[in-house]
């Protein structure tokens, strides 16, 4: 039995709440229209509509979280923007990367792609107030950039540089591989000893910060050294994760 009542909803809630009851139709000021006849809806129509409904938003969000490893907040953001076109864009990139790099975990790839769409690409678009319909970065562009990043062909810094370059270029036919070669961005890894020597040089230049980390346990400052290593080294030679490991090992944290 569904009671006649007025219900309300507030932002952040998951269900409506009862506000006041209605005793009968008169409370709703219903007035019958003599010119409108009864409408009979066949059960087959109901079944047809139920079977042909698209996926509901909540189901889409749950599937995105499950398949792409995104948080519900990020999944909801992708779905809500541009009538879901960003989520479609994300799915196409994930499919392209997973087809090319079958050894990579789909959820790891999905999370990486989602973060780049929301934060890196989204940051460029927000700064320029650019609509999604005018985006020059095709799904193939971003897929190629992230494939190279996952294969350690380029650094994260170079990947961001490529994305910005393509974002600013109105030519959709531009090749990511050509840009990597033209810009000499392909990763040329240095040795373990070179990593350690680079880190030691920066430690020597910042003894107070080294002491703060070792004596006062301010471990968060270690990322300063990682950033300095990336800035001081030749472009395309330092991997941020490798630099972090070396810094933490040398500082004993």
Give a short account of the largest sheet: 2 strands, antiparallel
Strand segment count: 2
- Percent of residues in beta strands: under 5%
Q: What percentage of residues falls in helices of 4 or more residues? A: 55-70%
- Biggest sheet, spatial arrangement of strands: 1-2
Count of the domains: 2
Describe the structure.
With 253 residues, the protein is mainly alpha-helical. It folds into two domains: 57-182, no CATH class; 192-251, no CATH class. The chain is built from twelve helices and two strands; from the N terminus they run E-E-H-H-H-H-H-H-H-H-H-H-H-H. Strands 1-2 form a two-stranded antiparallel sheet. A hairpin with an 8-residue loop joins strand 1 and strand 2 (17-21). The protein is elongated. The mean pLDDT is 88.
Please outline the helices and strands:
Blueprint: E1 5-8, E2 17-21, H1 43-52, H2 57-68, H3 72-80, H4 85-100, H5 106-128, H6 139-150, H7 156-168, H8 176-182, H9 192-205, H10 207-216, H11 222-232, H12 240-251
Antiparallel strand pairs: 1-2
Helix pairs in contact: 2-3, 4-5, 4-6, 6-7, 9-11, 9-12, 11-12
Q: Nutshell version of this structure?
A:
The protein folds into two domains: 57-182, no CATH class; 192-251, no CATH class.
Essential attributes:
253 residues; two-stranded antiparallel sheet; mainly alpha; 12 helices; 2 domains
């Amino acid at each position: 039995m569904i009671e006649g009542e007025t219900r309300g909803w507030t932002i952040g809630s998951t269900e409506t709440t009862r506000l006041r009851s209605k005793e009968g139709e008169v409370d709703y000021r219903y007035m019958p229209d003599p010119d409108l006849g009864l409408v009979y809806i066949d059960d087959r129509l109901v079944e047809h509509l139920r079977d042909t409904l698209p996926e509901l938003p909540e189901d889409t969000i749950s599937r995105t979280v499950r398949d792409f490893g995104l948080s519900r907040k990020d999944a909801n953001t992708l779905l809500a923007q541009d009538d879901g076109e960003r989520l479609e864009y994300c799915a196409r990139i994930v499919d392209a990367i997973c087809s090319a790099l079958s050894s990579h975990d789909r959820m790891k790839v999905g999370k990486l792609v989602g973060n780049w769409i929301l934060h890196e690409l989204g940051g460029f678009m927000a700064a320029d107030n650019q609509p999604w319909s005018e985006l020059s970065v095709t799904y193939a562009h971003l897929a190629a950039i992230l494939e190279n990043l996952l294969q350690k062909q380029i650094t994260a810094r170079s990947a961001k540089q490529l994305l910005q370059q393509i974002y600013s270029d109105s030519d959709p036919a531009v090749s990511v591989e050509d840009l990597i070669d033209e810009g000499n961005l392909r990763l040329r890894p240095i040795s373990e000893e070179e990593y350690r020597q680079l880190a030691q040089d920066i430690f020597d230049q910042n003894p107070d910060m080294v002491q703060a980390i070792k004596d006062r346990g301010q471990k968060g400052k270690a990322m300063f050294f990682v950033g300095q290593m990336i800035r001081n080294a030749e472009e395309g030679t330092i991997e941020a994760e490798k630099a972090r490991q070396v810094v933490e090992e040398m500082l004993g944290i």
